[in-house]
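**User:** Hello, beginner here. Are you able to go through the protein record under this note? It all follows right here:
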Amino acid sequence: MQTGGSSEAYARDAEVPLAGYAASLSTYVLLFGGLLLRAAHRRALPARIAPSDVALLGIATHEVTRVLTRDAVTSPLRAPFARFEGSAGAGEVREKPRGRGARRLIGQLVTCPFCAAPWVAAALGSALLARPRVTRPVLMVFAAAALSDFLQQSYARLRHPPRAAA
């Protein structure tokens, strides 16, 4: 548990790594803010961003985040920071962060799609701003995979609808 009045009052009996969260947040702001400042300095920021790019980026961010945080194939990347709990179906796994300190913080980041999404969006968005002609096809592939996943899941539910509880 963190020491200090505000940390103790916030966390009570739970282990909440507030110092780690603050470091993570600071790192995010410095990295992404630095990329934006660099792009602005180089006059590389567009006057406006097309809604189609926002949609493409959003769908691709969803898919990349799922692959990084849930896909069975990427579990070796998460293994040092997470504990396997079981299959989640459709090629996904359930994992929990493990360890303490930085290890646990990274474990939370790499096992939580909601936690990883801003990092993935910042990386993909920065790539899109820096090299749009190269990045759009990459985003297109991940967006197509996300749409395919949705269609596969929908098809499976239509073929085998959930049974009502008796």
